[in-house]
Amino acid sequence: MSVYEFTVATPANKQISLEQYKGKVVIIANTASKCGLTPQYGDLETLYKEYREQGLEILGFPCNQFGGQEPGSSEEAESFCQVNYGVTFPVFAKVEVNGEGADPLFQYLKEQQPGAGEDSAIQWNFTKFLINRDGQVVERFEPKTSPETMVQAIKELL
Asked: What region holds the Thioredoxin domain (predicted)?
């Protein structure tokens, strides 16, 4: 199994297969617009601009499960990213990442890289999962880990 077997929704609720990212190195992150870590949008965009031509893709998934920090619609979240951080990487529809309503993609990501806690639950916004060109989840970066610290791991996969 790989991430390519999942479909996700755009803010306009169009279903997209992750298979379109086959052969790319991908970062999947749960995000929020009103979080102390929100500036990571800019850091992720910097990575995207730097490594996109070499095969890096970044996929953002707004989530309102942590402190209600993504209260608006999926479209509002997407617009916020573009206007405030110049984000050009795809931002998808809002998802839940924990609990019974957790998106199947995030259930899979957590199974593959459970993290350091007692369970695999995502602790906060901006948990980042690094996926290799074969669609395998190879590393999990916790929310306070700056995207800049991911550069070496990204370069090794590119």
From this structure: 1-158
Q: Block means of pLDDT (10 residues each) for the chain, length 158 residues?
A: 96 96 97 90 95 97 94 88 88 96 97 82 95 97 94 97
150: nearest Cα among 50, 59, 81, 47: 47
SS3 29: strand
Interstrand relation of 15-17 and 128-131 (parallel, antiparallel or unpaired): unpaired
User: Per the structure block, which two tokens stand in for 45?
Assistant: 């965009």
Listed in sequence order, the residues at least 6 apart from 45 whose beta carbon sits closer than 8 Å to its beta carbon are: 58, 85, 86, 87, 88, 89
Largest CA distance in the chain: 38
Active-site residues, by number, are 35
Is residue 141 a contact partner of residue 39, using CB atoms and an 8 Å limit?
A: no
- Where are the alpha helices (H) located in 39-103, listed in sequence order? 40-51, 74-85
Rounded distance between C-alpha atoms, residue 82 and residue 76, angstroms: 10
Domains by residue range for the chain, with CATH: 3-157 (3.40.30.10)
19: tokens are 């298979």
Cα–Cα distance measured from residue 54 to residue 74, given in angstroms and rounded to the nearest whole number = 29
